[in-house]
Records
---
Amino acid sequence: MFLSVKNTSPAGGRPPNSGFTQNDWEILASFWHPVALSTEVADKPVGVTLLDVPVALYRTGPGEGVSAARDACPHRNARLSLGTIKNGHLTCGFHGFEYDGGGTCVRIPALSPELPIPKKLCLDTYLCQERYGFVWVCLSHAPRAGLPEWPQVEDGSGTVAIVPPGLWNASAARHIENFSDLCHVPWVHTTTFGGPEVVIPPYDVHKSGLSLAFEVNMLERVRYVEEGHPSATQDAQYNRALYRYETTLPFSCALRVHHPDTNSTYRVFDVGSPVTAQTTRIFQIVVDESRQVAPEALIEFTERINDEDLSQVVAQCPQDLPLDLRDEIHIPADRMSVEYRRAMAELGLGAARPD
Ligand SMILES: [Fe+2]
């Protein structure tokens, strides 16, 4: 009913009742995460959630960059995302307080103009940038890494398609581990790209900084038969594909699929954005270097792949990714997920510290 007469409300940081431990929250908050499509933030504020923190995104005008702030007006903690953009300012819908792009209050309608605006009336702002068609936010003011580098999205390598983000009731770690799990492909992706080979050839994982990469040659189901992709010119149901997966900690992965027979290349860039500990918004971009497939077909195919994964990943129990390797059983095909779990533990995640 009441907060204490002593001020105990946190000024920032992990919200009360967060599903993340304080340790994990602080580590994950020091990375950039996508929170929205750039196109989603237009002429009114948008509310999103990152690591349990409600965040308001807004542009002070057309063509302006996106600002990010805690989705709470410091006056009465109303949701700023319920407000509007007025006079080039984010305007709280409750009492009309106006904030500029830097989060400073510049107008209080109920305050006599000759009286000063309280200096403490500033929003809790976050680092925010737009790239690859996404709005990225870092909740820490000292990010420990930049954004993943995905040159093919920006350099005209091929047809670029941004997949509408989906919301999964799964942890970001379970999602991203699934993305580079080859073992499940012939079992789960039976109507998309899964091939007939169930034995996964041995492979090595190469670690460099925050990145983990491996390559494997597999037989996969021909993609885009109806859409005129070069693969379809072959008179075969399956074709050879060289997969290269590169995961960037904590939650992004770039997949390159190369078909040597047709010399065509197809890429998927995938990021799991941790909304809560067990809810993840999936951001994906597909680049088709063959330029033979319409963006709508690239999106539709990727969504079908996601649908195949979804039912399995949301049902994994526990939803939290075990970082003690003894908690699940691993086979050689799981080399990548073993190294991913090790690397996440080396970041300090999963440390058994009291909250
Ligand atoms: Fe999958």
---
Amino acid sequence: MRIGAWSLDPPVFLAPMAGVSNRAFRVLARAEGARLCTTEMVSAKALVLGGARSFAIAELEPGEHPVAVQIAGSDPAVMAEAARLVERMGADIVDINMGCPVPKVVRNGDGSALLTDPAKAEAVARAVVEAVRIPVTVKMRAGWDGEHITAPEVAERLEAAGVQAVAVHARTREDRYAGPVNWEYIRRVKERVSIPVIGNGDVDSPAAALRVLEETGADGVMIGRAALGDPWIFRRLVHVWQHGMDPPPPDADERAAMARAHLDRLIALRGEGPAVREMRKHLAWYLRGVPGSSGLRARTATVSTRAEALELIEAWRERARDEAPVWN
Ligand SMILES: Cc1cc2nc3c(=O)[nH]c(=O)nc-3n(C[C@H](O)[C@H](O)[C@H](O)COP(=O)(O)O)c2cc1C
């Protein structure tokens, strides 16, 4: 699959996740095989106003290419300006958020609210496409609710505006993150456009990835929550893609090394205190499914220094090594 000059094979991508898909996590996902990673969403307005936190979100790791920076907003001029900024900061692709369901976002007409106004979605995309030389992509949901599945129409308009790929999270805004995903929505978008369509939503294993591709005709898959505490999912996907079989899961030593690397990258980014607090949720995710981890999982909520986090990682590495690896 291609986006602009980028050849993205195997087409296995890390989803944008606020609070997760920062530089530290993207580097780990990429090393495991994610061919394209997208940043956390950044408010176009905040970027244009020069907000330091927004700039930090859009900052890239040296050598981290290709990478997409996701901007959110619905004012075409502001979105165009934000797109120019992220292009200057080194983004390879600008991704527009048309999926965020959060009330604070949709109240402004941003995120998934754009799906209720296909003409406006098109105008935003056109303004961004005209503002930059790099490719523009869009991540969207299926529509606002089950009665309004606008993604196929919106996608058609986006293609006409010059958007080079769309990722479809196969849920509506009303579904939020719960309820069954309906991959049929992805197929309906795929039927309407000739640009690449990336399938997203509950793809949690290589088998699920192959199923979504087969059922929808999608050109690639995007993984979000299944990568939490499990960046190896990309390696498994690549392996299945290339060799047709699922490799063995990571052993205790690999899991511990990954958690340590994640911790240290976050510390380099934020400083020890904030990084360790942010790392608590990741430690709990890394421990998911590890035999005998329940006592240790409770401890993840209280670590506050690098030394405590390392001690915890070492404790579960030793326990896990003594038990059969039943992860995944
Ligand atoms: C914690 C979290 C943060 C997210 N943040 C974003 C975001 O910033 N931009 C976006 O387009 N989608 C965001 N999403 C949605 C995901 O990209 C993805 O579409 C969704 O989780 C479904 O895919 P999955 O089942 O593989 O997780 C977020 C999801 C989660 C769980």
